[in-house]
Design a protein that fits this description.
By secondary structure, the chain is of the alpha+beta class. The chain has 18 helices and 34 strands. The strands form seven sheets. The chain has a nine-stranded mixed beta sheet, with helices on both faces. A six-stranded antiparallel beta sheet has the order 3-4-5-6-13-12, sandwiched between helices. The termini are far apart. The relative contact order is 0.09. InterPro entries: HET.
Length: 789
């Protein structure tokens, strides 16, 4: 038993927090009071607690220790292991825990504190897992001294939480988010839930409303639909009943009841739920209402986001907390004492414990975060209240505030920003990993975001792409390592799709969610991007009234240079490409191009029969020290054993709750040294189409330049090439005789003459070991006009 009364066995005595590590960081105020200086002069300190060996799945040794000694922590640790749901591979496992101090500011949520909690790792044969127990305290002196946050309440809609959330909703800094709402907009229908205790909420039309109406919108997971647990929906047969008599309370699912309770707690009389406010078996009503969903969420008083529920039948107001109260007594200041709470987060598959990742996991672990429709619902909501497994989180625009006192910035679509590889396609990498109960909803679920973007700029949208950045957008890569389909299956699905979603050139056309990881950033890291096509356009045929919803067909018509693949594909073998299969093409045994195919290849080579290369664009190679931007793939075999990796990892999209899963990290086709060659895009990219210097070849080029006329992805200080004083283009790489890096698509003939499918992407590096590479590879090719479908 420790000095404060916690029952601990001899091994677990180390769980007591010894704050003597703060002794070199204590400061005294003029009044004599002491405080812990939260500067980051100290490096991370791990103070070992103990190590345990036990046997899954029941962990009898921890259970025995608790029974014999009454040790609270042995019981708590065993419960955490059981609740984690991890199926350990071997027996026994070895658990090592330590107190974590001075985490040197790397992890955002503890930059202001000294103590982050208990961290550790579990050895399971050759596998290693990370484990984290977050520390919190509602005692102000303890939280200030240790630099920790508060403890989430056991009841979600308790008085303290309602007052906390209401104060944020009423804060002028957060009410300003409502200024982005559409004046006078109301959804077609709302649920009138009345006051607390009102039975049978009623479906009402808003067409007769003349004054302001505040409503909440619900964002949730429908879950699997089955006869045992049917989804409550409004249909043509029930519409009149729900409008006149109301919806019987006993028919409401748990999520709907919870949402009504939330509205009542904040004094909101009206609620919008898609399943009830849209007539689900009326196609025309469904299409009309879904095209307005972005306005429904943007104009809500706040959006209720049910993260802790994975179906409409599971409550999101029930918390899944696993906490242990401990008593704390400072060894440096006896006046600092009180209760401290350990909160088990989870066990992850990575051996390194990073508390910031555990923080973001309250979002990424939720089924809600993996569903397709919730992406638009979240992005369009100006204010949202997230009900997670562990605590409430409030968001106003891009700022998040957690119930325990933690706050952090996020990143969402800025509809006023012109879509580019950075702000649109970067977000689409996250969207592309989401799941749909009906994959036909992929395009409709983005329709609202598209409409919002078009409102602020005049770009043209086609099946997930924007015409102002069409060529770069077409150069997406497919991470096929999880796919089961081979070449024949891919071509069969493209020729006779069981359900048509989008054309083959769109990254939204692949329906194997969780198998296709997408990378759309690669070419954005290159210098002096310009078109090598004489003509490029794209269009779609809508399937209904919504031009941005479901489509019947889509075509990209391109006039460019095409050559047959010069050789079969040979797979690249090294330790770098863990998440995709990369191939090379050769001419006379020398490097010609690096390729990524859209299907799974199990062998070391793949036939190039019927496959061609379509040149779309070129980039130049430039570095201040004169070295090339690439390290060639045929040389990597000599480097792969050294532990050096030249492959690029995905850029963080800025949204902490949507970090890329390890298995979907983008892979660089070009193997760029990103630290020295990449530069960020500006938000004001425009097409530069004028040519005024001898260095320009005068063809219809597409060069992206910023408002100062300089290529936005190449700062002037980083280029070796002289820029034209008038148009700002790189004079050297615009010369027709210059050999630049080539970028394009791998295509396969479709059923009709002149039509092709996109089945891969390639880059041919101009400074490769062979003489026939780069744009020179296409010098002898004539221009052809084709349709990619």
């Amino acid at each position: 038993m420790d000095q404060a009364g916690n029952v601990l066995c001899q091994k677990c005595q180390g769980v007591q927090i010894d704050d003597t590590v703060l002794s070199d960081h204590i400061r005294t105020l003029p009044d004599g009071s002491k405080y812990s200086d939260k500067t980051w002069s100290a490096g991370e300190i791990l103070v070992p607690i103990a190590s345990w060996t036990d046997y899954p799945p029941e962990f009898p040794k921890l259970q025995e220790s608790h029974i014999k000694t009454g040790c609270k922590f042995c019981k708590y640790l065993r419960e955490a292991l059981l609740l984690s749901g991890v199926e350990f591979l071997e027996s026994p496992i070895h658990i090592h825990l330590s107190h974590n101090w001075f985490n040197d500011g790397r992890f955002r949520e503890i930059q202001e504190g000294n103590y982050s909690g208990i961290v550790g790792h579990i050895e399971d044969g050759e596998a290693t897992y990370g484990m984290y127990f977050r520390a919190g305290s509602d005692d102000f002196r303890i939280s200030q001294w240790l630099g920790i946050h508060g403890t989430p309440k056991p009841v979600v809609l308790c008085k303290e939480n309602i007052l906390w959330a209401a104060s944020l909703l009423d804060n002028p800094d957060h009410t300003s988010a409502l200024q982005d709402r559409d004046d006078g907009f109301l959804p077609t229908r709302l649920l009138d839930i009345g006051e607390t205790g009102t039975p049978n909420p009623r479906l009402v039309s808003t067409s007769k409303e003349t004054g302001p109406v505040s409503y909440c919108a619900l964002s949730y997971c429908w879950g699997e639909l089955n006869e045992a647990l049917p989804q409550l929906t409004t249909k043509k047969s029930t519409f009149q009943q729900y409008s006149l008599q109301g919806i019987p309370s006993q028919q409401l699912t748990k999520v709907f009841k919870d949402a009504i309770d939330v509205c009542h707690s904040f004094g909101i009389r009206y609620l919008w739920i898609d399943a009830l406010c849209i007539t689900q078996d009326d196609p025309s009503d469904w299409e009309r209402e879904t095209t307005m969903m972005h306005q429904v969420y943007r104009n809500s008083y706040f959006t209720i986001c049910a993260l802790s529920s994975n179906s409409t039948h599971s409550s999101f107001l029930e918390r899944n907390q696993h906490m242990l109260d401990m008593n704390f007594l400072s060894s440096l200041d006896s006046e600092i004492s009180g209760k401290l709470t350990l909160d088990f987060q989870r066990i992850n598959t990575g051996g390194e414990v990073m508390p910031s990742h555990y923080r973001s996991d309250i979002f990424t672990d939720a089924e809600w975060s993996s569903r397709g429709w919730t992406f638009q619902e979240d992005q369009m909501s100006q204010r949202a209240l997230y009900f997670t497994n562990s605590q409430l989180v409030f968001r106003a625009r891009d700022q998040y505030f957690a119930e325990d006192g933690w706050s952090f910035p996020g990143f969402r679509f800025n509809l006023r920003t012109v879509p580019t590889l950075e702000n649109w396609y970067g977000q689409m990498m996250s969207f592309r990993r989401r799941k749909f109960s009906n994959v036909g909803d992929v395009l409709p679920s983005l329709s609202g975001i598209v409409r919002g973007s078009i409102k602020y700029h005049g770009d043209t949208y086609v099946a997930g792409h924007w015409k102002s950045d069409l060529l770069r957008g077409l150069l997406w890569q497919s991470s096929t390592y999880r796919l089961e389909e081979g070449r024949e299956a891919l071509l069969r699905n493209l020729s006779f799709p069981p359900l048509y979603i989008a054309p083959s050139w769109s990254y939204l056309s692949r329906t194997e969610y969780g198998a296709h990881g997408m990378n759309l950033h690669q070419v954005g890291r290159e210098g002096h991007f310009r078109s090598r096509a004489e003509f490029a356009d794209a269009w779609t045929i809508p399937a209904g009234q919504d031009p941005y919803g479901k489509i019947l067909a889509g075509t990209a018509r391109i006039r460019g240079r095409i050559i047959p693949c010069p050789s079969d594909f040979s797979k690249i073998h090294d330790g770098i490409f863990e998440y995709a299969e990369l191939f090379q093409l050769h001419v006379d045994g020398a490097y010609t191009a690096t390729c990524q195919l859209d299907w799974r290849v199990n062998d070391d080579w793949e036939s190039s029969h019927d496959l061609s290369l379509l040149l779309l664009a070129s980039t130049c190679h430039r570095r201040e020290d004169g070295r090339p931007t690439t390290h060639y793939l045929e040389e990597l075999g000599n480097k792969s054993d050294s532990g050096s990796s030249e492959s690029t990892h995905g850029e963080h999209n800025g949204n902490e709750q949507e970090t890329l899963a390890d298995e979907e990290l983008p892979v660089s086709l070009a193997l760029l040294d990103i630290q020295e060659t990449a530069a960020s895009e500006t938000e004001n990219e425009e097409e530069g189409m004028s040519f005024c210097c001898e260095g320009c070849n005068g063809s219809s080029l597409q060069i992206l330049s910023d408002e100062n006329g300089i290529d936005s992805d190449v700062p002037p200080s980083k280029t070796l090439h002289e820029l034209c004083h008038v148009c700002g283009h790189c004079m050297e790489c615009c010369k027709s005789e210059v050999n630049n890096h080539a970028w394009g698509l791998i295509i396969h003939p479709a059923l009709e003459s002149g039509q092709y499918f996109r089945v891969g992407v390639f880059t041919s590096r101009s400074d490769g070991s062979g003489t026939i590479c780069g744009t020179r590879l296409f010098n002898e090719a004539d221009y052809q006009e084709i349709d990619i479908i």
